[in-house]
Amino acid sequence: MEKTIAEPTHDEDNRLNSDFVSAVVDAVADGDVEGARALVAPLHPADIADLFELAPGDRRKAIASALHGMIDGDVLAEMNDWVRDELMEALGPQEVADIATMLDTDDAVAIIEDMDAADQREVLRALAPDDRAAIEEALGYPEESAGRLMQRDLIAVPEHLSVGDVLDYLRRNEDLTTDFWEIYVVDPSHRPIGTCKLSWILRTPRSVAIADVMAREQTLIPVDMDQEEVALRFQKYALISAAVIDAAGRLVGMITVDDIVHIIQEEAGEDILRLSGAGEGDINEPIRYTVRTRLTWLLINLPTAMLAATVVGLFDERIAKYAVLAQLMGIVSGMGGNAGTQTLAVVVRALATNQLTSSNSVRMIMRELRIAAANGVALGLVVGAGCYLWSGVPGLAIVFALALFINNIVAGLAGVLVPITLDKMNVDPAVSSSVFVTTCTDSLGFLSFLGLAAMWGLGS
Amino acid sequence: MEKTIAEPTHDEDNRLNSDFVSAVVDAVADGDVEGARALVAPLHPADIADLFELAPGDRRKAIASALHGMIDGDVLAEMNDWVRDELMEALGPQEVADIATMLDTDDAVAIIEDMDAADQREVLRALAPDDRAAIEEALGYPEESAGRLMQRDLIAVPEHLSVGDVLDYLRRNEDLTTDFWEIYVVDPSHRPIGTCKLSWILRTPRSVAIADVMAREQTLIPVDMDQEEVALRFQKYALISAAVIDAAGRLVGMITVDDIVHIIQEEAGEDILRLSGAGEGDINEPIRYTVRTRLTWLLINLPTAMLAATVVGLFDERIAKYAVLAQLMGIVSGMGGNAGTQTLAVVVRALATNQLTSSNSVRMIMRELRIAAANGVALGLVVGAGCYLWSGVPGLAIVFALALFINNIVAGLAGVLVPITLDKMNVDPAVSSSVFVTTCTDSLGFLSFLGLAAMWGLGS
Description:
By secondary structure, chain A is mostly helical. The first copy, chain A, has 3 domains: 18-148, MgtE N-terminal fold (Alpha Horseshoe), CATH 1.25.60.10; 156-274, Roll (CBS-domain), CATH 3.10.580.10; 287-456, Tetracycline Repressor, domain 2. Helices cover 64% and strands 6% of the residues of chain A. In chain A, helix 15 (257-275) runs antiparallel to helix 18, helix 18 runs parallel beside helix 20 and helix 19 (361-391) packs antiparallel against helix 20. Residues 1-6 of chain A have low confidence and may be disordered. Chains A and B meet through helix 1, helix 3, helix 12, helix 13 and helix 14 of A and helix 1, helix 3, helix 12, helix 13 and helix 14 of B. Chains A, B: This is Magnesium transporter MgtE. Chains A, B: Its main location: membrane. Chains A, B: It is found in: Cell membrane; Membrane.
């Protein structure tokens, strides 16, 4: 039999396939612990993490017991937060502490920060004093700040060393970290004065001073900087790692790009979920939290819908006389809603990626206004002509076309002004913009269509 | 005078502030070329790129002429595609070719691939033969594939070398690349058999064989793999760089994480723009393209709106008798639309990040159904009670509450089934899902509310 190129355990998306997941779940259910362990043994830690996410929720604890000792820190660091929390309860504080000891500070913090206070205390108590001190210090920084992301194990050398001295230092000190991409050159007060890529060291003769190899231009990250801002710096300057400094400018840690990659992905994906009111949108979140988040959003949107209904109510006599208005009014509000969502999506992304700033916001508003006008004219003509052919009533067609045009302008203006204003007020535009924009497009859509119809005397 | 910590050129988002941008624009407009160059000289290439994006479109060519010689490959590589294309025309093929020569292949390809065919030929002709061959080979790979992303300059060594041999090789060969994070160990047919982080080499004595330092487990990227898939591998396995192989398994290039970071950001941000029909949503795109993209989407949504209007038309006699139905029907369709958008956002993100696979799709459908039922009951009770207090008509309140419940179920089911089905058919669910989901929530929302009202005999 020939081997196929695709691994038999993985599907075309490079995720464990459902046959493999079922095989492990079934082996555990049948009490075949050795069989389950044999299946899992060749997997990468990221795949073992996936296995737990893909297995049914009520089987995860049994799988964890069967795989005792195989779930190390790398597996937990890759695992979804909710799934991990569930497992931690199954493992108990001593085992969690053993795992945390083997990890970089940032990964240990990621695991411990989500636990409830009592469990956290128990795990911290089970840690060795120096690990405990490092993790407690990290937990002292604000959530989602550079201080939580950074690791403390890094290579820092004084500037008077030569390349040869650095090599000797790295080779002779057994307990230095083995995973690093750059080394930092510091002054006597431990303030970073330069950064040196390892490739530069490798390409340079031993006798050259490290100060002549390092780059003095470097991006320093303040320890209290928000992780989203950190991610944007990494992106803007194409960083692999960066030094983190305290308020006095002293080197306190290092952030590497592999931790940033997750943040960039999360932050970029968050916008779509926030705009739609889906909260974190984590598919492993317990269902009661999901219902609470989504229901809150739907209830917030209810007054918007009621306001629009009130606008319609102003014209109920006219609608009673001419029910075709009720038929068409939803097209006006709906098309306005679509146009508003388009503008909103573009503006929210541009704000999140720092592409839209005070230098170009006026230009952006004018741009959206021109787009809205062009779309409004085109849609108005298409829909107006269609309406005339369908109804044979020129007045209705004109009112319909005009209302569509007006609501496109409303949508364009609201879609750009609402998020820019919220951003200026330091409110996250992704969270709250769409309620305001929908309120505008629904209410003003109905008002312009039914109001123009009344002015034209349609249905009298 | 004391120095402030914030740079005077940057705002709180670490983008050039509008005063600085205006100062450069004004200096160029006043013919003060030296003044403009003095302002720009201290900037990082990423900031020079920003300067062009933030300056008004009609001033960019004049700024480019004033900054002649300061716009190097690093600046162009950081620049928005549309803004860059505009500049390239101002620069002319010889200058573009000079810039491309100084770049890594992947960055040169990124600049050249978007040019139109005639300009591309001219630039290629102006290149040195070996640069030209490398770039033409890269352009031969599909767009957005690993072959376009990879650079050809990398360090590959045979496995019989010692660490000392590797150090000597790196120090003695002047023309090797200076920027790399890992070296690849290859067999005699140039197939990668292991990867070695530079930090491991630095921590190991000269006499140790490189084969004893390298990791044999490595993630190899096929040259034709789609960039989104490449990005997911980098994320899943926390890679800094990865070897790219051809169909015969030979090492042909290397991809580094700094290029992947941009892709992750783009791909994650794309979903929000596609779901809303905003195309690429690039704020620097010429306005005629933007209008075309957005208008197409609005026209695609028109039949959906018309179908919903047709459903309303079925009940126009009843609406004429009881216009309050017209008032409330928009609440049913609107709340259904909101709930559908929530589910859609979650499912689209879960599909894009490979969190939702065939192993857990049934579970996901059941999950969304339970959420929809819970939200439907809660919303139905709130809105039904409110309607009874407002109208005093129990039948209307019951019909309204029931219709809201039904439409929540419709929204939940459509929101999860539509994207999963499209994904199975290899259609991007972010692009086309929302039309289908809106069609369901609008039409079935009206149908359930007006249909139940007719069955109950409201308005007769």
